[in-house]
Amino acid sequence: MSKQRTTRLALAMAITLSSGATLATSPATSHTPEEYESRIQKAMIDSKTLAASAHAGKRAAFLCLYCHGEDGSSVQENIPNLAGQNPVYLLTQIEKFGDGRRSNEFMSGLIKSLKVEDRVSIAVYYSTMRPNTPAATDANLIEHGKKRYQATCIGCHGPKANGTKAIARLAGQRVSYLTEALANYRASKSPRTDPVMTTVARNLAPEDIPAIAAYLSTLK
Ligand code: HEC
Ligand code: HEC
Questions:
Q1: Does residue 118 lie within any of the structural domains?
Q2: Domain, as residue range, for 106
Q3: Number of domains the chain is built from
Q4: Ligand 2: which of 86, 144, 156, 203 to mutate, most ligand atoms within 8 Å of CB?
Q5: How far apart, in whole angstroms, are the C-alpha atoms of residue 205 and residue 197?
Q6: pTM of the model
Q7: Given this model, what pLDDT does residue 147 score?
């Protein structure tokens, strides 16, 4: 991000934070994957509870919309869409930013300030949205990406790239974010590392990465 951009962000966040955010007094404690899942299940147990969770999540997500967009479709390159993402995956990533397993200079502090119930309702809210960012249009690139995706990624991320509760949905994700995430796994750059994804990314030819990202951006 450019210096100017950074200053604008810091400013926007200071304004946001001073305009009445309910901040937690102490950071939430970490939980196990089973706990993340059961929290999400409880928050989505029936349609009424789901609607209430999503409503609460939309309110709590006002700290996030400057970057992730009003409805979870990112407004900038390199920032992921959260719309349509699997709720357990989302909550897991939020917790990772909260406890330092993942970090981002602009976001980690914001996430640390969220109460447990807000983390859960935000994850539910975004999972009910649909991503809506520009898709790639180069037909040859998309075709190559489709072949490579189907040969290498389908077993975990699924035939339609919908992922699972533990594995990210990739369908409709921003090209720049996918490209950067794959490059980071390939380089095994701390603080986000994953042994499985590092092996997968290292086995790709360099030209596969933009192609797969282009293909994934076209899936809805
Ligand atoms: C200043 C911009 C900014 C703000 C504000 C922001 N984020 Fe982010 N977010 C990012 C960036 C950049 C990434 C990618 C970071 C990375 O992968 O290292 C990201 C990644 C994420 C991810 C991981 C998505 C994935 O596919 O793995 C989640 C979840 C997330 N943000 C949630 C939130 C929530 C919840 C809020 C509000 C409390 C928020 N973010 C506010 C910039 C922001
Ligand atoms: C053996 C299972 C497995 C295979 C095969 C696999 N992935 Fe993954 N992928 C994962 C897991 C697990 C994660 C979450 C890792 C984490 O938390 O950092 C992930 C995360 C990702 C992410 C980050 C998503 C986000 O929202 O931040 C991208 C991008 C990705 N994979 C792309 C791919 C592509 C492209 C392929 C094929 C070339 C592939 N993966 C093959 C298991 C797999």
A1: yes
A2: 29-127
A3: 2
A4: 156
A5: 14
A6: 0.90
A7: 98
